[in-house]
Known about the structure:
The structure is a single chain. The chain is an all-alpha fold. The protein has one domain (about 30-350). It is built from twelve helices and two strands, in the order ααααααββαααααα. Strand 1 and strand 2 form a beta hairpin. Helix 1 (about 5-25) packs parallel to helix 8 and helix 3 (about 60-90) packs antiparallel against helix 7 (about 190-215). The longest helix is centred in the N-terminal third of the chain and has 31 residues, at about 60-90. The termini are far apart.
Amino acid sequence: MNVPVWLWFATIGGLVAIILADLFLVDRKPHAVTIKEATRWVLFYVALAVLFGLGIWFFAGGAFAGEFFAGYITEYSLSVDNLFVFVIIMAAFSVPAEHQHRVLLVGIVIALIMRGIFIAIGAAAIAAFSWVFYLFAAILVITAINLARQGTEHDDGEPAPVRLLRKYLPVTEMFHGTKLSARVDGKRLLTPMLMVMLAIGFTDLLFALDSIPAIFGLTQEPFLVFTANAFALMGLRQLYFLLGGLLSRLVYLSYGLSVILAFIGVKLVLEALHENNLPFINGGEPVPVPTVGIGLSLSVIIGVLAITTVASLVKARRDPSVVHAPPVAAAEDQPGHDQAQAPERDRSVAGE
């Protein structure tokens, strides 16, 4: 797939424009995002991804369009598992409901920039070393096994990045609106707003360790890898508000994702063997093994997600005990909600 430089710049410019428009329209007046609002934005971002995929189909052909859609669906589905961690981070920092959208937006922008760097490194490694496919496959299979062992349980403990940030950086106890830093008793301190943005961004980078190899197992085109990640991440924060309580009902999500990752891992191994040039495997000659087409890949991914979702909802309905309430306090119950009390409380904390 030959992608001219101007198209790269135009695509990145378009994505930046969409993010700025989102920031201006939604976050102009901080508020708690409603279900209806989140639904509209999720449909908007999904429609954008579909239109982009159709554009690829028209200009580059159905094969590349299929790779984009397979990558997009895979990245979006893997990102759903990220939402469990996002919920925990929001609860750990007691983020007021009216500021959660900005936190997610900035955190995901940070994640997108870092993923772009990761994708560039991965594409260069694949071009230079064919054995990288085996490494990616191993990462996916190991991740799949860990997800399967996790089962219906999710770690409700505070994420390591959150603990690290709180331990070594001077942070005010309360939020100061949307400010990233505040002066308390003559000292300039960081606010939880900055901490949670960084936590969201860097935590998402950890998830990229399995999602990036997964999409490289579906397409080796850096342009498709980047855009699929971008559209998945851009729609992720609205999905956070839309799913709400439904997220805790997807009790079999880890099993479904483990099947998808294992499937892509096997697909990577087959493709690596089919194009083998490692001297210790079949004397450096390609191994005549069957490969998995993008059509089959797309069908498996969609089928597994559909079965996982239906099975999860049926299980949650028959056995409510498997559903864990999301650890998010209501906006009026969160310590950071009453901004007027923040300076006074922070002064007492700073004086300790």
